[in-house]
Amino acid sequence: MVQRGLLPDFSPAAIAEADRFTHAADASGGEARDLRSLLWASIDNDDSRDLDQLSVSETSPNGAVKVLVAIADVDALVKKDSAIDVHARTNTTSVYTAAEIFPMLPEKLSTGLTSLGEGEERLAIVVDMTIGSDGTVTASDVYRAVVLNRAKLAYNGVAAWLEGTASAPPRLEAVPGLDEQLRTQDRAAQALRRVRQARGALRLETIEVRAVFDGDALAGLIPDEKNRAKELIEDFMIAANGVIARYLESKGLPSLRRVLRTPKHWDRIVALAAEAGEKLPPAPDAAALDAFLARRCKADPDRFPDLSLSVIKLLGSGEYALEIPGQPTEGHFGLAVRDYTHSTAPNRGRQVRRGAAPPDADRSAVRRHCDRRVGQGNVGAHFGTGSRGPHRARIRGAQGRRARACPARPHGRRARLHRLRRGPERIVNPIDPPRISLAYQDEEFLDSEDARPLRIIAEYLAPMHAFRREGITDTIVFFGSARLAPGGPLGKYYEDARELARLVTHWSTNLPSHAHRYVVCTGGGGGIMEAANRGAADAGGKTIGLNIGLPHEQRPNPYITRGLSFEFHYFFMRKLWFALLARALVAFPGGFGTLDELAEILTLMQTRKVARSIPVVLYGSSYWNEIIDFEALVRHGMIDREDLALFKFADDPAAALALLQAGIEAEPEAPTPDIAHSRTPP
Questions:
Q1: CB atoms inside a 10 Å sphere around CB 437
Q2: What pLDDT does residue 262 have?
Q3: What residue spans define the domains of the chain?
Q4: Which end of the chain has less Cβ packing within 10 Å, N or C?
Q5: Max Cα separation, the chain?
Q6: CATH topology assigned to domain 452-663
Q7: Which residues of the chain have pLDDT under 70?
Q8: How far is the C-alpha of 175 from the C-alpha of 211, rounded, in Å?
Q9: Is this structure's pTM higher than 0.90?
């Protein structure tokens, strides 16, 4: 996750924010409608605690069905630009692996205070849609409401009851009228599905399995098949996403759509059909492809998942697209819908919705970030990420596309599961040509001893490339302990580092320059590093994090500017980049790491090895004079008295800023980046 720029852990600031929440958002007053009297119910996995949607319905005399879908209103608690919001914005998605879930929000919120749990009154965003007898949405609205979950139901139990193979689950029987509610919802969902299938929604089947653990050991895999209850929720979510997309468009607001573009490799799908003795039209045609899939599903159900996976690979991945009202938008080829957002996933959807308001350039950045994070969030692909429950493995289709199972013979599914357990075989596209890796794409070679020089030079060239791209000229480096947290011991220094970084950034961004000067640069982790990056972000400036892979403590904080967070393997390359662009250094209280980096810069200044002055500010005079007896170093002849002029002390942010401004030598416009040169003795 760290290598892909994701945050596995919440920052101390985010944890502190979560700890301050003691109850759910106040549901009284305001413009929210009171819909607590309706028979709301959730349908999810048996072990799900992060319940993010409810549904309820009512039938009108003309045969139409009004369906209300309630989505957890996360924004009611998590405010924009809070530490929790910054973490969520950085990851953009929860990351599911077979052994652990890394939630986008702290569990206190995702499974507690914002979860639509049974018996809990919660604020929600309600998608109100009227579904005609022909399966079309004839009217819709979106509004906030207070809801109350009457029953927590599970997919398998509801599906078995709907399909007539089992009696009603106890929780369903316990709520009078809920059984008829679900029958009505099922009919409405089936009508929605028929409309999409008539338009060419693809019928695909992928294998889903649940990993069963005995302690920490994988004990086996059991099938997790699609069923009628899952399809019910799926159909409502697709319809609700369409309603919200059209709602935003009607208000003149741009939005992010989830699209699956017309496949570029249609010719290869045609060739795949030809191998099965079928013929597809030369131009992409979703309805023709779905008819072909339906025929193959019926003719050869055992091999249909393999065919589905090949088609999924050739269709390509879904992506986010920026929709501007009045401009044409490409729809979702696999779902056969034009309007599709991700707003019914409350954690991810809140980021998508927040991408709708900024200027065009910012919206495009949000779209690219969402696309990148959806791909990077799939870090556990080999463990089957993307599931909604713990210890779940899945062979997934393209992002944003759901699979529809066709009837398969039981022995066929067991055979495929056996292949999954056994491991050596894998499903591949039968018409993919063999690929030979180029040397610079050969991961085994790049990780070898022989390729160490390449890895070292990459840790020089990659930051150089990024600094040129981002227009970074030089930096002011902040050092300090990763262990300091706001409110904790020495927590004052966290707040002071944040304020000083804010002041530095406000000053530097107002300098007349074509590039970014004196950019706050840290080691990228928590504590003082997080505080400095956070202060720079508070001022709206760019800020750099030079991370290093360590067994503990070092994790990239969420305040680093996108594109300026680096992960180093080699300590000496990280040290090099601290020194190369530094125009000044501020050292806050810290331990061995801080002392190490401080000594490096002081040695460079003492020996005049670097052909520029780097003023050093030791922040917290009482701490530094207690930790290092500078006078003793002079008395014992280890340094000269004039070496004490290499640094100055400061005890408040304003004084530190003044020292930095006075100590940095004025220079004309410098190159980007402005790398310090070494002096060589004559």
A1: 10
A2: 73
A3: 12-260+317-422, 452-663
A4: C
A5: 97
A6: Rossmann fold (3.40.50)
A7: 27-29, 98-99, 200-224, 257, 259-260, 318, 320-323, 326-437, 551-554, 666-669, 681-682
A8: 33
A9: no
